[in-house]
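Researcher: I need the complex structure. Ligand is aspartic acid. Inputs:
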Amino acid sequence: MTNNQLTESGRLRHFLTIEGLKRPLLTEIMDRAEQFSSISHQQVKKVPLLRGKTIVNLFFENSTRTRTTFELAAKRLSADVMNLNINTSATSKGESLLDTLHNLESMQSDMFVVRHNQSGAAEFIAQHVAPHVSVINAGDGCHAHPTQAMLDMFTIRRHKQHFPDLRVAIVGDILHSRVARSQIQALAILGVGEIRVIAPKTLLPTDCQSLGVHVYHDMEEGLQDVDVVIMLRLQHERMQGALLPSAREYYKSYGLTEEKLRLAKPDAIVMHPGPINRGVEIASTVADGPQSVILEQVTHGIAVRMAVMSMTLGSQQEQEGQA
Ligand code: ASP
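Model: Output:
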């Protein structure tokens, strides 16, 4: 399910997953985001790139940061944005997902930003939209969250520049995390020196070794000399059965405290995709401390989403020009 997100000339038509993408494309997303992030500091935070375009935020699952930053990104590109509240929409009255989609398409929508609790939902929608419509995956089940991974790569690049020199540790619920999956793919494509995952056995996917990561069950060992620590939330909503002892035990073994952070390099940065659970996976003093870039990640989400939206709709315009 990887390459139908690209046009014949290798441009992004949809943005569904990091898997299968090449380093120059990821670099282009970050370079573009760099340009867009300066717009956010201007008095008028808008460019007319997507004027006249209609973007629909189609969120079947809750979201705060992702939905609002997608909305802001679209507005800063001068597009018209609609937020579809799925609970009050026709799908809950029995209309099928595809009927809802085709109705939205009839309103001349140009892009769907899709969040869904089922893995593969964005891909399914992308397979059924009209040729002029782009789909962006804003998180599907345990599968992928490509814009989150790209804003994380952008944040790392802002602080650390050269990916091959880095040692990055991802800590926590890797098994259920679409963020971790997309991050691991992006870090590997960007040539990061060493990717570590730190988790209890019950929260690791069985195919972990094939992802090209080093696995640690002991957090003290895994954090030694890392440049970047990425903490993950426990995805209780996706867990089946008891995978953990107690929250207290989990925090003791896998919570990031100031003491454990001292094992990483002194200039290591601490990241988290949010929402954070203080005292469950991260201590407040670390989340709010000088090494934390958690709120910066949120800010960068706007520029990175502007980059992805302008690239996908830009490739559509290129194709129309050639037709
Ligand atoms: N916000 C991220 C996601 O949607 C991470 C999380 O929910 O823990 O996957």
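Model: Summary of the prediction. The chain has eleven helices and nine strands.
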